[in-house]
Design a protein that fits this description.
Layout lengths: L8 H13 L10 E5 L5 E6 L30 H8 L9 E6 L3 H10 L3 E6 L6 H13 L2 E4 L12
Parallel strand pairs: 3-4, 4-5
Antiparallel strand pairs: 1-2, 1-3
Helix pairs in contact: 3-4
Length: 159
């Protein structure tokens, strides 16, 4: 008899996205992303951090101050990292799981990559100009965005 209570695909892939976000060294926001094929195969993952070769000891993590002294001009978001990390060809028709609703810049990359569905956990920037722009572009391009429905299951990983 098989085991009951296994993770659903959505729980599994959102868990992978959240676990990926735990790799981020950003002290205020850790975001993870996971791109999945239509056959439920993980194609790529990403988290927010600095580009390869840019030491996270040498670049700022601050949120406030002069723009060049903040993280914003330097950090690559998890969604873009997942897209750029993929080396297998086209992402046309895939699904993206992400722990935070994509900003407008990531929305552009998602659309251009051919990703057709975005499952997101938090939408804490709902209503901001970048958020509204993302949703407007997704709607125009036919990208479905679906809020993740938390099941309340606890997942514990000991490392």
């Amino acid at each position: 008899m098989k085991r009951d209570g296994v993770l659903t695909w959505d729980e599994y892939f959102m868990g992978v996205a959240q676990l990926s976000g735990m790799r981020s060294k950003d002290p205020s926001t850790q975001v993870g992303a996971c791109i999945v094929s239509d056959k439920n195969k993980i194609l790529s993952m990403g988290y927010n951090g600095f580009p390869n070769g840019c030491s996270d000891d040498d670049f700022p993590w601050d949120r406030e101050g002069e723009e060049l002294e903040t993280k914003y001009p330097y950090v690559t978001h998890s969604e873009l990292n997942a897209i750029l990390n993929y080396r297998g060809g086209s992402l046309e028709g895939t699904k993206l799981y992400v722990s935070l609703f994509p900003c407008n810049e990531c929305a552009k990359a998602i659309i251009q990559a051919g990703i057709k569905t975005v499952v997101y956990d938090s939408d804490k920037y709902n209503g901001t100009p970048a958020n509204v722009a993302s949703k407007r572009m997704f709607d125009a391009a036919g990208v479905e965005y679906i809020p993740y429905k938390r099941s309340g299951k606890a997942v514990r990983i000991e490392v």
